[in-house]
Structures are given as structure tokens and as C-alpha cells.
Specification:
27% strand; 3 helices; alpha/beta; 8-stranded mixed beta sheet; single chain; 3-stranded mixed beta sheet
């Protein structure tokens, strides 16, 4: 089996159905594991829908008739996907990248943070709260005095034969009211934001350029290849 090192970047057009995306990912993951396809990063948008990860609680689906609900094999709880949100599906070979799942998740978090920094946004991670967060000094602090924070990106992956799939979603300019049909990732005490909601006129193309620009450094810094 020959070593493959290239990462193919795929940019979807229009809105990609969720079942179609899962079928594509599963086929590509199998091919990567066999050594017959390159790693891939797929940038796309979905129509409005909710996904339920393996830890999803039914009580967190507060409006079950609002949008289609898809069971997802990734970890995590309920998430929303829809127009204006960049979904980044990462089909990467952890067999070459260290076989360290925690390291890989840190690399994904670091990649999102580095991408947001391209627009002057400080993304942060929080213990016990998945995803990437931004502090909102424009809003009153929480009753306990901690600053108000909103989630701007979600992360949820699955591995098959040490190849990842599913991945990241970053809010560029989605309809934030669509998140109210779920408790996003099971977290009730914080809100959701987007780049445009933060006052930044960022387009999907702008974000894609930033993702491509920061990918190599973020992945190598957090999770160096091992023999």
C-alpha cells in the first residue's frame, strides 16, 4: 500500500442533502483506509436540518417538527445545519497523523481558532463545553459574574479504521433563530452567534480562503505526523 500525503479540497455548490453527504463521506473514508484515495476536506452547506449525535437527549429537541432530524454517527448531541453555515467535513488519516484522538480534536479546535483570528475574532475553548466560543462584552454578564459567551463553531467527529469523518461547522451568516428548535450541544445557558452577527461582513468565500490558509500550520502545530 503506497503512502498518500495529499489533501483534496472539495467545495460544494448549492445545498447538499445530509444523507448524500454521509454516503459520500463513508465511501471516501473506506477508500482512504484502503490507500486508494487522498485525504479530503469538504466545504459545503446543508438545507435546514437538525442532527442528533450519539449522546443526544430527546428533551433537547424542543421543536421536533420544525426541520428534518437526522441521526448522526458522530459523537455529541443535537446540532443545527443550514444555509449560511459552513460545514467542514474532514476525511483525514489519523494512522499517519498520530492515532491520538484528543490531539486531533485539539488540532481541529486550533484550526477554527486560527481561522477566526484571520477576521480579528478571538475564539476560545471551554472545559466541559464543546466547540469554539466568543466572549460578548456587548451583553450583560451572567448572574455569577462570568462574561456572556456565544458559540460560533461546533465540532463532532467519528473514526473508522483510523480515518475521520464528520467534522466542523462555523456560523458565517445563518438564521440564528433556527437554533431555537434544539438545545445546541446540550448547553442551555449560552447563546449562538455568527461572524455576521458579530458585525463582520464575512462571506463564505472569505472563510474558505482563511480555512485553507491556516490548515497546514494548525494541524502540524497541534498534532505532528508520527512514523
Amino acid at each position: 500500500m503506497r503512502e498518500r500525503a495529499l489533501v483534496e479540497w472539495i467545495t460544494g455548490t448549492g445545498l447538499t442533502g445530509y444523507d448524500e453527504a454521509v454516503a459520500f463521506m463513508e465511501a471516501r473514508v473506506d477508500a482512504i483506509a484502503r490507500g486508494t484515495a487522498d485525504e479530503a476536506v469538504w466545504l459545503l452547506e446543508h438545507p435546514p436540518l437538525y442532527t442528533a449525535g450519539t449522546s443526544a437527549r430527546i428533551d433537547d429537541l424542543t421543536d421536533p417538527d420544525r426541520f428534518p432530524v437526522h441521526r448522526a454517527s458522530r459523537g455529541g448531541q443535537f446540532t443545527y445545519h443550514g444555509p449560511g453555515q459552513r460545514v467542514v467535513y474532514v476525511m483525514l488519516d489519523l494512522g499517519r497523523r498520530g492515532r491520538d484522538v484528543r490531539c486531533f480534536v485539539r488540532a481541529l479546535e486550533g484550526w477554527v481558532i486560527a481561522t477566526l483570528a484571520q477576521f480579528g475574532v478571538k475564539g476560545e475553548i471551554r472545559d466541559g463545553r464543546v466547540g469554539v466560543w466568543v466572549v460578548r462584552p456587548d451583553r450583560p454578564p451572567a448572574p455569577d459574574g462570568t462574561p456572556a459567551e456565544d458559540k460560533i463553531a461546533a465540532i463532532g467527529i467519528r473514526l473508522r479504521r483510523w480515518v475521520s469523518f464528520h467534522g466542523i461547522s462555523i456560523n458565517v451568516d445563518p438564521d440564528l433563530s433556527h437554533f431555537t428548535g434544539i438545545v445546541p450541544c446540550g448547553i442551555r445557558d449560552h447563546g449562538v452567534t455568527s461572524l455576521v452577527d458579530l458585525g463582520l461582513p464575512v462571506t463564505m468565500t472569505d472563510l474558505d480562503v482563511a480555512l485553507m490558509r491556516t490548515f497546514d500550520e494548525a494541524m502540524s502545530h497541534h498534532c505532528r505526523n508520527r512514523p
